[in-house]
Structures are given as C-alpha cells and as structure tokens.
What we know:
The complex is a heterodimer. By secondary structure, chain A is mostly helical. Chain A has 39 helices and eleven strands.
Amino acid sequence: MAATDAQTSLRHAFGNVLAFFILILIGVLAFSIRLFSVIKYESVIHEFDPYFNYRVTQFLTKNGIYDFWNWFDDRTWYPLGRVIGGTVYPGLTLTAGTLWWILNSLNIPLSVETVCVFTAPIFSAFASWATYLLTKEVKGPGAGLTAAVLLAMVPSYISRSVAGSYDNEAVAIFALIFTFYLYIKTLNTGSLFYATLNSIAYFYMVCSWGGYTFIINLIPMHALLCIVTGRYSSRLYIAYAPLIVLGTLLAALVPVVGFNAVMTSEHFASFLVFILIHVVALVYYIKGILSPKMFKVAVALVVSGGLAVCFAMIAVLVAMVASSPTMGWSGRSLSLLDPTYASKYIPIIASVSEHQPPTWPSYFMDINVLAFLVPAGIIACFSPLSDASSFVILYIVTSVYFSGVMVRLMLVLAPAACILSGIALSQAFDVFTRSIKLQLPSLSIDSPVDAGDGSSESVVPDDTVKTDKTEDTQKERTSKKSRSRKSSSESVEKPSSKSQIKKRLSVLPLETSIIAIVLLVLLGAFYVVHSVWAAAEAYSAPSIVLTSHSHDGLHVFDDFREAYAWLSHNTEVDDKVASWWDYGYQTTAMANRTVIVDNNTWNNTHIATVGTAMSSPEKAAWEIFHSLDVKYVLVVFGGLVGYPSDDINKFLWMVRIGGGVFPHIKEPDYLRDGQYRIDNMATPTMLNCLIFVETDGKAFDRVRRTEIGKKHFKLTHFEEVFTTHHWMVRIYKLKPPKNRIRGKTKKSKSKANPKTVSKRKELKRNPF
Amino acid sequence: MVRSTTKDAQDLIRALWSAYSATPTNLKIIDHYVAFAVFTALIQVVYVALVGTFPFNSFLSGVLSCVGTAVLAVSLRIQLNKENKEFKDIAPERAFADFVLCNVVLHLVIMNFLG
Lengths: 768, 115
C-alpha cells in the first residue's frame, strides 16, 4: 500500500510540475503571437482610442496621481473641455503607469510608449492563466490546460490585444475571467476569503471597462438560476451576498461610475436578487429548525400576508423605474438589449463600425474551430451538472446573444467559447485514451495497481457520478491536485465488477479511438494555423501606417503621422483644428493641438455642429467654424491611393448626425435617386458642400471608381495649406474675415471717389 | 377561519421560539449582532427620509456598511453552524479570520467613501 501511495504522490507531483511548465509555455505563446505588429511595422500605438489612453498615461507618469484624478482637459471638445478624472475608466492607465513606475524604480528605463505597447500581450498571458484556473474549477486541470491554450490563440482576443492595441479590453478581459474564476472558487469552497478576493477583482474590472455591467448582471442571473432550479446552498449565499455589498461600494468609488452604481437599471438586477436570496435563505433556515407540519402552517400564513406587502413594493418600484424615459437604462445598454434602438435614436452609436452586428463569416474568422466545439462543450457540462458548469453555460448563452448584437462583443464570447471547447476536447480525449488504455492488453495488468490511486480520488460509487452530488467530487478535485484526467484512474477506481458496466458505457473500439485522436489533433493543428495567420495578416495592422504590395515592392503610407507632424511644427500652440471625430484622439496626442470633437462622442450636438459644417456650402461652413474659433480643418481623402475609409465614405453619417440636430440638413438632398454618388450625377447640394470641395483632388477617385463630378473650382473662404504625400490628409486654413463688407454703403462711396468704382469692379471680378 | 389562523400563528411563533432557543450561544450572539446592524441601517434610512440625501455618498456608505457587516456576520454564522455539513472541515478560527479580513476590506472602502 505504501508503494502505491508513493507512486500516487509521485504521479501527482510529476503532473503538477508538468502542468506548471505547460502554463509557462502557454504564457510565452500568448505573448509572442501578439508581437506580429511590432515585427512587421514598428512598436507604435494603433488605431484611435489607444492614442487617448496613451496621452492620459503620459500625463499620469509626468504629473502624478493627484493631478490625474483632478485633470480638466481643455485641449479637446473646444470650447467645452472634458473632465478626464471623472469620465475615464482608470484601470488601464493606472496599470500601465504602475508598471512603468516599478520598472523605472528598478532602473530599467523603458519609455512610457514601450510599456503601453506591451501591456496588452502581458495581460493576455495572465488571461490565459486565469482561464486555466477557471476551467480547472469547472472540470479539472486537463480541461483547464486545453482552455488556456485555446484562449492564448483565439483570433477574436488577439484582434483587441495585439502589441500596440492599448485599449481597455487589454486588461479588462483578464479582469473578467479572473473575477469569474474567484466567483466559481467561492461557490465551490464557500470560503469568505475568496469572496473578498472576488470583490477586489470585481473592483479592478469596474476600474477597467464599461463592460463590467455584464458581470453584475450575469452573476445575479446565475444566482437566480441556482435558486430556481433548487440548487440553493449556503455556499451560494456566501458567494453572492458579500460580493454585491462590497462590489456596489467599490463600484461607487470609481468616479466614472459614482452613484450610477445604485441608481441605474444596470445594477437593479443585483439588488433584486440580493433581496430574493435573503428571503430564500430565511425560508431554508426556518425549514431547517421547524417540523414539517409547522412549516406548512408558516408557509400558509406568510403567503397570505406577505404577498400583499410584496405586491405593494413591486408596484412602487415599477412606478419609479417607468417614470424615467429610458426606464433607467443608459443609451449604450439599451442599444445592446434592443438592437434596433441605436439606429432609431442615437445615430452616433449606430455609426461606429464596431457596433454593427457581425456576419456569419466573422464568427468563423474570430473563433474558428471553437464555433462547433461549443455545443459539444455545453453537453459535456450537463454531465454532471454542477453550480460551476451551470454558470459557464449561462455565460456562453448570454455572450452569444450579445455578440450577435455587436461585433465588438465577440471579444466577450471568446473566453466562454474557449472554456467550453476546452471542456469538450478534454472530455473527448478522456474517452478515447481511456478506451485505448483499457483495450491494450499490456496495461490491463496494471489496473488493480491503479485501483490503489483511485483512493486519492475517493471511492465514488458509480451511480453518484451521474447525479448531482458533484459538490463532493468538486471539493475532492480542488483539494487534491490530480493530473490531467487522461489517466484511467477514474474508471478503474471502481471495483472490477462495476468496471464491466463502465466498459459497456464508454469504451470505444481501439481503431476508432486512435483515428479519432488523430483527427482531433488535426483539428487543433488547423486552429493553430488559422490563428497564427489571422494574427499575422488580419489583425496586426496599426491603421495609422498603411502598406500595400505592388509590382515594385512594398509601399508604406505614413500620411497620418506626416500630417500631424506638420500640424505640430507649423501651427501655433493654441490653434484649434476641426475634423471629423474619428481623428480627434490622434490629433491631440500626436499633433498636440486643441480639437473640436474627438472619439469620446459624449456630446451629440457638438458633433452635429461639425457635421453640419462639413455638409454646408463654403460660406455657411466658414461661419460655423469661425464661431468655434477654428483655424484649421483636416479632411481625409482616399481617392488617390484607394484608401476606403476616408471622409467621403463617412460623409453620409455626417449628414445624418448633423441632420439629427439641425433640421435644415436633409439626407435626401445629397442622394440622387436614393444613391450616394460623387460623379457628375450628384446633386447640387452634394457638389457644393464643404467636404466635397475640400477633398477633390485628381479627377478620378479610386475608391468610388468614378470621375469626380465637379472639377476646377476655386475655394473662396478656405485655403489649402498642406497635403500629404499620397493626398490622404489635407489641411485647410480658414481665411480671415474681410476688413470691408460688401453692401449698400458702397453706393455712397462710389459717389465720393471715382477711383473706388473701378476698384469695386475689380472686386466684383475677384471675389476676395 | 380567523380563529384557526391566529391559533396557527401562535403555535407557529411558539414552535419557532422553542426551536430557536436550542441554538448554541455563540450563534445567538452573532444573531444579535446582525439584528443590531440592521436596526442601525433602518435608523439611517429614517434619518435620510427626514433630512434629505445631501451628502449621498455618506448615506450610501453608512447604510452599506451596516448591511455589509450584517451579511458578513450571517456568512460567519453559516460557517460556524455545526448543522451545516458542507462546512465541517473549515476550522472556526479560519472562518473567523476570513470574517475579520473581509470586514477590514469593507471598512477601508467605507472610510474612503464616507467623505
């Protein structure tokens, strides 16, 4: 017996060490696969939003945390300004700032930009370790390792966390998975220590991302599901109630959330279930101390009396909620619950490309093979069903719904898909390897010896595996770290008479198992190949630098940075630059000039003003910009090089958003027969508006593949000051207002001096 | 009907009382603590109804601190109750240590939020 014990513990030790090294390798893999953008382009911050985060981090590292909390930024949203301390989710910038500070105090002089660029890959390694921990709580270490490997490479997560994508999701996904892991761990162990850690992890999540409302609604839903399906236990109470109290307090601490933590509908679900769980706990307690007859009496009394009180309270609550026009939900949450809401009421949310619903191909692009492993995982979770696996099932169902609403939320689907696919793959490998092991004659001699180490798994009778006494097995599994369940210990721990039944249930023919294992490995290979391809080709573009391959080599289009550098060198520090809101963050961060609107899009009217100006004829546009103190206007034109996301393609959104606030801008004025054209068939309004006039260039537009409708006109109120190398960014300066104003006074002047008559005639010919 | 209902109610209350008196003393102490915390929260709510919610963060932090300690005390009671089979392998010292840790975190947050 001692020999088998030693063998068992040796095996466990070996398994633990192996799992540890595998986890290290997974972390390295997750980090390295995201480095393609640094290798192919350079270590630069990508896209638009990360530039804002980078600027905030620069400010934090330069000025310290108190100035950061109290920062009022006057270089954006001119003339309104923006309270940065109160409107930004500080988690990401504080994390990167802390990392930079630690490294610098250890005398490793990395620049802020380097730390910002590499924050996302580091936290993706952490996220895969968190996935291992979470899936280990649900099913065991084998499933955990599989899920971790899948998450390290899933293209959907890579797309938002490449090196350089310094956005909230980089740390938020790690915080999400870690919070879920701690919740499941508390649910499995019932320890208040993990409940405290859970609340702290939830606080980190609230600091990092607006998507924390997903957590604070999913956990109450799961608690409700457990109560309704009769799986209430005191561990559920310990897991849920302290999280809600501490979590609400901690969420209210973050300035962005503030009192919204108790006043908006996003949080009401948690309070309702909080009250409900107390009622249920009380009921169970009374049931425990009373005899059954008295309990029936109690139920009858309470039902008659308490229901009236309940209805009154619910009526008050409903009246309060219904009195607000959006029923207490914020605009963004409503657009998630009702996918058509944004297009009807909030055009700005509808215009963002990552808020559109995804297409079917994007599911296969983003989660690839996992898309059809997920249903297998759901079935595997049902056998046996435990609290943890019911949570994972709920998570995948809700995240599939939300990912169908907005393509950006496929990111929330990715961890759930990886967990379930990991469970499915691990179970499949289990069955196949067990079949092989039971059928290989040489190994069957060892089976009585293996029965000894089944004692460490605790002799579980056959029938209870299939029922929901899985709390015991879960606890044994968590208290003893067993190696991956590829070993046949699970099957042979039962007495050999029962192994006959087991054999009939889940042993497959030898050849089938071998072929199936080979096929599964091939599946994994396809997944890996696709993920690496997606990371290298599809998701590594920094979008501030563009490349194209032609017959004479690689062309690099660095026009954006060229334009911003021109702005920062050739304009005054206080000059205001107007452009469409997409470029606001980049302009403030790289050109260091004040902008009118930027990507934060919190003020619809201000954006509508800029949109109206872009859609109006020159003089009206000049008036609007002059009233905003604008000196320079920046437009993006892709017609020469074929860059498809330029301002002409975004123009209809400018019209819609402007028309939403200023009714004289009507979308049909710009369309000919309902079609959007810029060639000679375009409407006069279209041909005269500012955006069109400013982005004209060569006669042929490569993006729209038409000839420009109006060539050879002169600008009267704006003058062009800079155009980049590939004509992608064009900067115009507002001409100063005229000293003399044409009008009726000219007649009196002409009587006085004949010279002015000729001057007036000249003036008429030359508009300025 | 009414007569039997009141008689039932009296029987019920008597049964509850006798069953409750059988609980050990340490659990009763925790129950008194929970009752005290809830009562304090109620006083605060009445006060806010009278005076208005002006420093709302103070009200929130006060009420949530009462509710929080009540919840944590109930969790401690669950873990210390010998009749709960799921918790038989948690030592009472460990349960109390967890309780203290959670309270420390809770009160740190409260002090920060109190304004």
